[in-house]
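Predict both folds.
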Amino acid sequence: MEILRNMWRRKFRTFLTIFGIVIGIFAFTVMGSMALKLNKMISGGKKYVTGQITVSPKGSSYDSTGGTLPLDTINKIAKVDGVQNVAAMVSLLVTDPDPDNASVSMGQSPTIYGADNSSDFKNRNWETMDMREGKMLDKNSTDDEIVVGINIATDQKLHTGDTYKIRGRDFKVVGVVAKTMTGPDSYVFMNIKPARELLIASNPFMKSLNDSGKLKTEDVNSSVAVAWKDGADSEKVAAAIKDQFGKDVTVMSPVKMGELIDKASATFNAIILGSAMLALIVGLFSIVNTMVMSISERTKEIGIKKAIGASPSSIAWEYTLEAGFIGLVGGAIGMGLGVLAATLVNNKMAAKGAEIFLIQTNFLLGVIIFSFIVGIIAGVIPAIRASRLKVVEAIREL
């Protein structure tokens, strides 16, 4: 009550101090939630790519449609020492980009993911996916069946049994993948044969070669996923593939891919640190200024408290806790506004399945604790100064 009374006595100054903290914590909450979402996506991608060796056409990148791998090359890769099995994959966007309506996306663009479901290949880190509805594709799935990610299902209002037209071709939805917060949320899973046909149809050059018989449909593969045998070293297997086929393919080993992803993750973690430092600096100076002025104005009051028996430690604790409480109030308001802003944006983007913020309880709890600590740190020096005031000098000053 004493702390609240002291804060209320100087309402305007307290309001300005709290407002400064609110701005910093608001930025911290919003940017932190965005970084959490991006890191969630990155960690999911890392889990997937480090569970397999990915081989793609020379000069292309992961999931690129810029080149193709012939089936003969894939069959030869399967015979490399240490390789257990392989699975050809085809990927392309669900719709071609519209240059007149380009937009910035915070996540994976809707992508067709065609896989050879007849293969026994299993990603070591991601063998199965949880389903929201229906079932995942398997060896018995037909070419007109697809499974869609939750973002696509939300955007297109799709459920099991619905028909979804992709690039002019009708497919039957047999499953909806549960939310993963990563790439699969925006995938359309289908058998590799229709994915190949769609890729060829989307590329005039490939189509002309295919129509003339110079390009076989089964030779159109965007990449191949490779599983290594138990006991084999994935890096040695990847190196062996590179040694034999390095002129024609790009080999991405689990370890190297993990390292690249870790570097990207570090960038987003720096966003959290940067916003935290901003909140810390703004909050510290605001509270220090307020507490120094408060002590200057209450010098006589401090002297009287000491004269009637208040100890230096009790004086120090009073002003430190007051500063901490200011930080706590400002932090709570800033966090609340940040959550509100993130929720409103997510709700607006939810129709497109493109939420850009991830709100986690433990993060919000950390924000509150951080705000209180900022206040405590800012109040320590003024509080020590108050506790060291001499009784006679304090009373004489005013």
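Second protein follows, with its predicted structure tokens after the sequence.
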Amino acid sequence: MDPQTFIEGMSHAASTVSVITTDGPHGRAGVTVSAMASVSAEPPTLLACVHHLSPACEKLRKNGVMGVNVLGEDQSGISDTFAGRRKVPGEDKFSCAQWNPGSTGAPLLDDALINFDCRITRQFTVGTHIVFIASPVAIHFREYGRALVYANRAYGTARNLDQFVGAGHPPASDTLRIGCFATIGPFFIPQLVSRFLDRHPATRFEFFEGTEAGLQEGIDHHRFDLVMMYDSPAIRDPGKVELARTAPHVLLPAQHFLADRSSISLKELASQPMVLLDISPSRDYFTSLFREQGYEPHIAYRSPSFETVRGMVANGLGFSILISKPANAMSYDGRALVSRPITEPVTHGCVVLRKFPGHSASPELVHLFAGHCESFFAGWGI
């Protein structure tokens, strides 16, 4: 058979997308593959096929360990990076996401749908590819989310059966799919939904919370009807609606020497250790507040988790600057926190709503919920 005919036929076969990684004495590497499959459950065994010309191939062979990171529907950008379709600064593909070493030393992707931390037990060549047989020593997986799927040379995702055959469910046109920036959702989405259901009880909702990049990927792949996020220079959407302007505040441990001030100057904070919320656009916005005043913050710690940042501050590891402010001024481990306004006049954050009628829900329902959001935020002082 002609190889091109075979390739064309296989392009129609849907498969999950994984990033295969390795690290060890022979260096770190990663590559995107769609050829990953279970071999046996007794003993647990999987395989992955990697082209023999891939730079990752030799390092996989020599290191003898392999991370299989199965991607979620919001992680196509990571797939494109390790497939070489998206360039990153400094050519370090791993800079596109957060990673942690597994027990084997292989890099495991934070927030992957599934991580298989494996030791390679066999390897052999078939045509142009090396087949790696591996035994997982640990498996980590999310309890939510759907797999990124590749077929017909395009990304997609699996759908739950209850979207089609669930008993008693309203039609798909009554389901709103809402994307929300991770630190906005907990503060606004529950109230918005509860009040909307008082008037429109037949409406169903599906939610996704993520970073700016994850939300943009969802928009690009038509996964959302509405997206609520912070405005940033990266958003070039003439249809976005400003919902609220929100003032940043300084977060301190209750025992901090500045905690008794009514407001705190960025000048005083510039030399103090900062715990940075390390997600876009938050990281750039919070550091820009200092640079607008001619200062450079001393960033001691970074975390992409809002609650981890709060916990690190509560335990005396530094201060942070945040916008979202929970009603309970305590960290997860029960330590007290205080919030203080910034003395200098600073640029406020701006929550925006982006509408995509016709993607899933009816345009009428999308516009109805968008109007509900605008009314909800009307008192926030735009």
